[in-house]
Write a structure and sequence with these properties.
121 residues, single chain, disordered N terminus, eight-stranded antiparallel barrel, 8 strands, alpha+beta
């Protein structure tokens, strides 16, 4: 049987004996990597909104607020800033997110429309 493993792993058979020691280190490394991947990128800020209808969503804005990611829990939308006379408008051509005086509304989204939404974080 040792010949089989030597053929499969070649000279690395001796290195295989170290794997059980390195498994906890590998597991911790994977957890840290997963935690980093779930953080917003490029200095974005994430804001959670609760809406009068009982639903809600989270919104991640990049540093200069030119891009937004709207997450309804079942779907995520990438939206670009659009010119607005007042407040902020983000859209992808179908979904429209409007934020004015701290109140947000989103139409064209799964589970929506979301109206009269206020920041909870």
């Amino acid at each position: 049987m040792q010949g089989f493993w030597l053929g499969v792993f070649g000279a690395n058979l001796a290195a295989m004996s170290y794997l059980p020691i390195h498994r906890p280190i590998l597991a911790v490394s994977m957890l840290l990597l997963a935690a980093c991947a779930s953080q917003p990128e490029d200095g974005t800020a994430t804001i959670r909104y609760a809406c009068a209808s009982g639903g809600g969503f989270s919104l991640a804005l990049n540093r200069d607020a030119s891009l937004a990611q709207l997450d309804t829990g079942s779907r995520r939308y990438s939206l670009a800033s659009r010119p607005a006379e007042s407040g902020q408008i983000y859209s992808d051509g179908i979904v429209v997110l409007r934020i004015e005086n701290g109140v947000a509304s989103a139409v064209g989204v799964a589970g929506g429309p979301y109206r009269d939404c206020r920041s909870i974080s």
